[in-house]
């Protein structure tokens, strides 16, 4: 599934010359822990997260690393309004294109230890995808999984679904039956494993012909006849 099918197109952004107090207010009101920093044309310049606030505050008060909400609601010493988003934002933005696969997005978030990824097309922000968005792609009902396996057999592999007993329990799929060829069995098992929502495949398929061992015998060389 492409991330453009999962992303949120309406992204809350902020400019690099906005104050940290304004950035904090937007995060709290929207219930998010980070904002994308863009210019007036929508070009991404960076991101600012709670972690950036932590680094900024640590420079002034290393002994106290408070939560963003506590800073914002605390009356004695909130982050200085003189500091701007551009002073603390992360400029090296990790992003993806709308055509990227959701598995690639999940891997990127895991490897980079980030919660969301801006989606950029032709240099401009078009959406944002979060961990919860990606999780939706992996959480599917067993009924939906069975319907897609049935579609794969009928429309892709041209396999009679009556030959295979398929069950799915919380994404754990079981395949039982006998197919015409070993290659059909292998393809069905492999394609099932690739389906969204499938967490495991118990393959107990058999076959009538092992066509992977068949070899084509070349015809004997023709003999020339002199007349």
Give an overview of the whole structure.
About 5% of the residues have low confidence. The chain has eight helices and eight strands. The strands form three sheets. It has a three-stranded mixed sheet with strand order 1-2-3. Strands 6-7-8 form a three-stranded mixed sheet, covered by helices on one side. It has 227 residues and is an alpha/beta fold. A hairpin with a 5-residue loop joins strand 2 and strand 3.
List the main descriptive attributes of the protein structure presented here.
227 residues, alpha/beta, Histidine-containing Protein, Chain: A, 2 domains, three-stranded mixed β-sheet, 8 helices, 34% helix
General shape: elongated
The CATH topology name of the largest domain reads CBS-domain
Strand content: 15-25%
> Which consecutive residue ranges, at least 5 long each, have pLDDT under 50?
62-66, 75-81
Measured as a percent range, the helix fraction is 25-40%
- Over all CA atoms, what is the radius of gyration? 27 Å
Give the total of beta strands.
Answer: 8
What is the spatial order of strands in the main beta sheet? Answer: 1-2-3
The largest β sheet comes out as: 3 strands, mixed
Distance between the termini: 67 Å
Mean pLDDT: 82
CATH superfamily of the largest domain: CBS-domain
Secondary structural class? alpha/beta
